[in-house]
Amino acid sequence: MYHSYGYGGGMFFSSNYLFLVGIPLLIGLWAQFRVSSAFKKWGAVRASSNITGAEAAREILQAANIRDVDVVETNDYLGDHYDPTKKRLCLSTNVFNTPSVAALGIAAHESGHAIQHAKAYAPLKARMVIVPVTGIATRILPFAILGGLFFHITGLITLGIYCYLALLVFQLITLPVEFDASHRAKIILQQMGIIQPGNEAVGVNKVLNAAAWTYVAAFIATLGNLVWLLSVRDRRN
Questions:
Q1: I need a labelling partner for 180 at 20 to 30 A (CA). Which of 49, 105, 214, 232 fits?
Q2: Mean pLDDT over all residues of the chain?
Q3: Catalytic annotation, pick one of 55, 110, 178, 200
Q4: Are 195 and 166 a contacting pair, CB within 8 Å?
Q5: Phi and psi angles of residue 126, each rounded to the nearest 5 degrees, phi first
Q6: Is it the case that residue 43 has pLDDT exceeding 50?
Q7: % of the chain at pLDDT higher than 70
Q8: 232 neighbors 144 (Cβ within 8 angstroms)
């Protein structure tokens, strides 16, 4: 958490911080709770197709004529992701080995990213370009914020603002990438008969819609931090 020290108007910045940073934080916690709850509920519901997340991912990739993407298991809980640089689709253990509705939804979502990559989906390409910049911004940000606030160096606060801008652009680009992957997943799963209309389709929608909120929450949180830091700099000037 970032706090303001050593200048007047402490109450002004305290209230600003609670509004611009505290509320997005609560939204983020709520989004994470929704994801965990949806995954727990639908992770206990076996799909009628009785195939695991890994099997579903391989079938989807094969149907899309994608032969150069490896489907591998990762030990990170809900750490499922597609790595476009290594062309590797990583599924957490509960998704990789489980024939549940939740597992199939997540596996299909990550497969959707692989399909985006194969089709040169523009937002995904843009996100890949900006990833190195966000990596640098993430490493610089704590030093810029702490140095700016504790040592009253306005230039470091400005640097922190630019870091947040880079992260905000990244998260803005991420939104259509994630929404499109979920949209593809919902369609593909039913077209291929991996899930059935009705309760199974509802479960996939619940899981993927909950996951989408985590990306919205991340964007709102970064925007809140950016606006708050701008207010800090303006107050000092």
A1: 49
A2: 89
A3: 110
A4: no
A5: -65, -40
A6: yes
A7: 90
A8: no
